[in-house]
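Shipment paperwork, digital attachment
Item: protein structure file
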Amino acid sequence: MTTHATHMRGSSHRAYLELPWGQVHHRRAGDPDGPALVIVHQSPLSSATYEPAMAALGAHGLNVVAIDIPGFGMSDATPEQWSIPDYAGALWEIVDALGLQKVHLLGQHTGAIISAEATRQKRDRVLSLIFQGIPLYSDEERVKKAEGYAPGYTPAIDGSHLKVIWDRVRWLYPTISAESASRQVAEYLSVGPDYGVAYRAVFAHKPDIAAVADVPTLLLHGSEDVLDRMNDVVTAAFPHAPLVRIPGGTDFVAEEQPEVFADSVAAHVLAHAAAPKPKFTPVYTATVEVTGGRAGRARSTTGALDVKLTRPAERTEGNTGTDPEELFAAGYAACFASALGVAERRKRVTAGPVTVTASVTLGTRPGGTYGIAARLVVSAPECPQEVLEELVAITHTVCPYSNAVRGNIAVITEANGTS
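Attachment content:
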């Protein structure tokens, strides 16, 4: 039996970030030390559009991250109707949570508008832009589209709403494969009946093109992309940006011609990449020898640590042995508390007395493997809640333990300040 890939899964690494409005799903591939390329998809779809090209982009040495915009794909919905500046601000929170500094942004359609606004907000952090179709509507077009471009659907017990979605997808993209169309139906359903939430934000927003005019920009899309019709308007707005049209490609050229797509994207990114990251410089090395595994003993070469280890399931009253989870929790809490001091200096505020409580949980995974998850509770009874929340967010990008586990394990942070 032949199965057709729909790219909802794929081979890239998938994970979630915990952010103030909920969880954000993202895909990663490539070299973690390479130039960071953040991909922002069109609505109402998801990062799955780029799954077929992730490996090809990573093969060029890029650090590729494709996010699911809040409310789409497998990311949690926003608490209310967001504007484009809201989505752009959230994009920077996502970038910060990923531990990225200067980035290249690739945005398609809605994602292009978000990327342009994100660049306006933090121009110093954007090395280059790639617009895979950017909808530069006139004022009249935005008003007209807002009147009924994405009418939504009503779930029906006979499933007739599925055909409504199918017919819309086929109307928009008459030449795409049945597999690609099927994936899009699933993505529409994941958003819900009101799938036009991001469209409304686009139609209400007028991009500030002048604010991003000095950013190295590439205009790249398939020759059959629905926004190919806007080339005259877009090239006039970005007169110094080369226009690359991939012959025969639709809006989904990244899945139709992944190698060709990746070659063009990587050439632009590498041409405008920042200087290579400084190499890792050792500051201190701790060495601990363990004999007997979880039921053995841990001794540091300095002699400062010499403890008995006990399996949690075998711990009895009076047993003074510790375990790897307790040791990891102690290290993480201590490191996070110190890193919070760095965040205080950066923000020029004082949190007052701070206690960090780390909980590390050992658990099982499908297939007989094991993993851990962590929770950090930061208590500062003299610090205003909103200040402490900001400090904790910054600390999460500074702490070496947070940077080491980011994207690999679930880490939940909780800030308890004064209201």
